[in-house]
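I had to read the description of the data format several times before I understood it. The format is easy to grasp once an entry is in front of the reader. For illustration, here is how one protein appears when written out as sequence plus structure tokens:
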Amino acid sequence: MNRKLFKSVREYKKQSVLAPIFVILEVLMEVLIPYQMAKIIDNGIQNGDLSYIIKMGVILVLMAMLALLFGAMAGNYAAIAGAGYAKNLRRDIFYKIQDFSFKNIDNFSTSGLVTRLTTDITNVQMAYMMSIRLLARAPIMIILSWIMTLTLNVQVAIILLIVIPILGGALIFIAKKAHPHFVQVFDEYDVLNNTVQENVNAARVVKAYVREDHEIEKFHGISKVVYDLFTKAEKIVAWNNPVMMFVMYTVIVLMLLVGGRSIVLGSMETGELTSIVVYAIQILMSLMMVTFVFVMIMIAEASTDRITEVLSEVPEMENGAEAVKEVKDGDIVFDNVSFSYAGEGGALSLKNVNLHIKAGQTIGIIGGTGSSKTTLVQLIPRLYDVTEGSVKVGGLDVRKYDLEALRDQVSMVLQKNVLFTGTIYDNIRWGDENATDEEVQRVCRLAQADGFVREFPDGYDTMIAQGGNNVSGGQKQRLCIARALLKKPKILILDDSTSAVDTKTDALIRKAFREEIPNTTKIIIAQRVSSIEDADQIIVMDNGEINGIGTSEELLQNNAIYREVYESQTNGGGDDE
């Protein structure tokens, strides 16, 4: 695990240090216990000295109790350190994501970010917790047990000295063979999570088209891939135990041969042989622990790389040292603006846009699909940065503003309306968390939402289900408009945000805007001509360029695109064209 991630340990450094210290103390007791047992067997049992047996037995029990105490404390501190480290990692990733611009977010899939915040961090947590316990325990146990064996019998100690690197090398080889499969698994987890997420979010569409069997088959397909990769990895790792057992029993047989011969020759006592066998088992089990931790670390290494990708992502937009925190008014200027989602050198979505919107004006934007209407308005609150030229709000380049201050004064209702789990009051107060009930109800009246809200049994205390699935599309749009209005912005942008409401309600919303927020600059992207017909200016977009600007009457006279849309909707009788 790299240093960048270790920074997240922070306030849990104390527990991270105390855990291995208590592990060392636990190991010391466990190493002394076999030696104490040998003394009881050789000096007490063989000589029939009951008082000696009782005395040494009490010491042995105290050692065992101390080992238990130290082990419990080590486990407790390791658990706190591991859980705390994971908590900090989740916080750091989540906070990092909050600083991302839209362009940064585009670099990651939603399911990929969710996997990093859940499965990947759990892997890192387990590896960290085991590392501070077992990586401290195993090497010390191996060294001390071998030293104790050396003091009892040099020949057996030499056997262990030969076996330890051979067994360790074999187990590490097994772990390395399994590692590539574990790496692949986590990439497939992203695909699996994405499949599940899509299915849950689009459950109504799946059922409407009777595609349950297709979705089940798709899920089984990716689930089978994950299963196969895990199976391959586990089949390799499964060799750990038989290799370990084979070596352990081989070593025990060799020790019994050497030790038995020494006992017969009188150079070793029975108790000493017993303690040597225990030390050998401790050494071999410690090697097994090292390998197990090594496998966990290798699994976590893949997760670490994925987490580091997020933490190393440089936010495209950051506040300058002297960022301006007050927006003068809603005046907007596009000065020779070009924009590409791919950055400099990429295909341009906007080309040489020059535009001046005066504060308080109502601006309509219309154009075909893919004409970059949404792209144009997303540059105003600096959701993306221009590739060329500049966007000015209140007479100042948006890049000179404090991001929070700018976005507080630019309310934007996006194409995809999102409501969060909570009451209607909670959702509307996203616009202003300190707003009173009366202020919330007022903006709902402006957005023509008050009527249907009061029809709910719980009124404004009605709980919104996840994603707003218990309200209609039109109701969701009106609640989102109310939420935007509560910010009391200088600029209000509606990105096709009244498409799901009827024309009468749409007209009432626009009437409320004119009467109640006359000084707010209002930009309305719409597919219906009726939604923008009475705007001060209408902008016609075509292929990333401004094809025409003017009132509805002016555009009917001199703009073919607008005239075609207008006639197709009015003469064809299709408001939903």
The two ends are 56 Å apart (CA to CA).
